[in-house]
Specification:
Strand content: 15-25%
CATH class of the largest domain: Alpha Beta
Number of domains: 2
CATH superfamily of the largest domain: Glycogen Phosphorylase B
CATH architecture of the largest domain: 3-Layer(aba) Sandwich
Helix content: 40-55%
Distance between the termini: 10 Å
Strand order of the largest sheet: 2-1-3-4-5-6
């Protein structure tokens, strides 16, 4: 069997990361008997989502001449759904689409309506629609008119070969931390979905209390990076921005962190997300301070949680910096047992195989 996996968003996005993780998990599960190909998207997002328009004819060409038996698309944007529905009609191939959040919820007004309008028509024609958040199980049938019998839960997993808790990089640590400073780290794609602004506000409070005992490291880049830089400067927060980091390198930054931060604002769209960074930091045995919005709340035994409040979040960071209770060890073992991409891939491959 041959499987092709493609991302609707550019290579600098979390969508492309999930695409690669799904592809690798299927490849590993197939143990040489299954050929898995990733169809690369454009390198960068463009203003006004122009990359979506430009990639429609590109994806049409790549898909229509592709000999795969099964196609898996991540996010139901028309630049992947239209070519795949056409492939299903022309060649009777099996098609799967992964819906991993409420994309239209990140925007307001006309852009939100346009986003929703172009996603809605196509998922109902797919053989399987995957999701990773329990709330999406009810939302997808209502919004996309998908039969629940065609839905499959594909969790947000962790590639444990990349996010290996044994990984060390003392030279990288020396680059950022001086005189026994601790490293407090946030990692992520700095785009419209990032709530880094509230984290920066919380870090102003932490900085006022702890002085220069730590380095605040922001690992990652994206279209809103400059806005976050300006906010940090305006508030006087000493933040070190790394810019874009390749997924193969990001684990080295997690490895040097003493404390990792994950924060969702209390807004509807965040209840439908599943945090990749939370799982990856926990997989590496790191102390994680997070709030308790949506998916984050289920990890309250494994991360140090607060309400979605800047002041509470800051106080928790200060407290955990001084002393934790060891829950990060239990967190790592939980991820290894339940959210290893290799194990998720084996189950997903069985589902795919049942379609033929």
């Amino acid at each position: 069997m041959k499987i092709a996996v493609l991302s609707s968003l550019a290579q600098e996005t979390g969508c492309w990361l999930r695409t690669q993780y799904i592809a690798n998990s299927l490849r590993n599960a197939g143990r040489g008997d299954v050929e898995v190909e990733t169809i690369k998207p454009l390198k960068k997002n463009m203003p006004f989502m122009l990359d979506m328009v430009l990639s429609i004819p590109i994806n049409f060409t790549k898909v229509l001449f592709n000999k795969s038996d099964v196609f898996v698309a991540v996010k139901p944007f028309p630049n992947v759904t239209i070519p795949l529905v056409a492939k299903k009609i022309i060649d009777n191939k099996k098609i799967i689409v992964d819906i991993d959040d409420l994309d239209s919820g990140y925007r307001k007004g006309l852009l939100s309506q346009v986003n929703s309008f172009f996603q809605k028509p196509f998922p109902r024609y797919f053989d399987v629609v995957t999701y990773h958040n329990a709330l999406l199980y009810d939302y997808i049938p209502e919004e996309f008119m998908v039969n629940k019998e065609n839905m499959y839960k594909l969790d947000q997993g962790v590639d444990l070969k990349i996010f290996d808790y044994k990984l060390k990089d003392n030279n990288l640590r020396k680059k950022f931390a001086k005189n026994n400073q601790k490293i407090i780290m946030f990692m992520g794609h700095l785009n419209i979905a990032s709530d880094l602004d509230d984290i920066i506000r919380a870090m102003k409070i932490v900085q006022e209390r702890l002085g220069d005992k730590f380095v605040f490291l922001i690992a990652g880049g994206g279209p809103d990076e400059e806005n976050f830089r300006k906010l940090a400067e305006e508030l006087g927060v000493r933040a070190v921005f790394t810019g874009y980091i390749d997924k193969k390198e990001i684990a080295k930054y997690v490895a040097i962190a003493d404390l990792c931060l994950v924060y969702y604002k209390d807004k509807n769209v965040n209840y439908y997300r599943c945090s990749m960074k939370l799982r990856e930091c926990m997989a590496m045995g790191k102390k994680v301070v997070s709030d308790d919005i949506g998916d984050l709340k289920q990890f309250n035994k494994y991360s140090y949680q607060t309400k979605s409040d800047v002041n509470e979040f800051a106080e928790k960071i200060i407290k955990v910096m001084r002393k934790g209770d060891g829950r990060e060890t239990k967190a790592r073992k939980f991820i290894e047992k339940n959210l290893d991409w290799n194990k998720l891939g084996e189950k997903f491959l069985k589902k795919i195989s049942s379609l033929n």
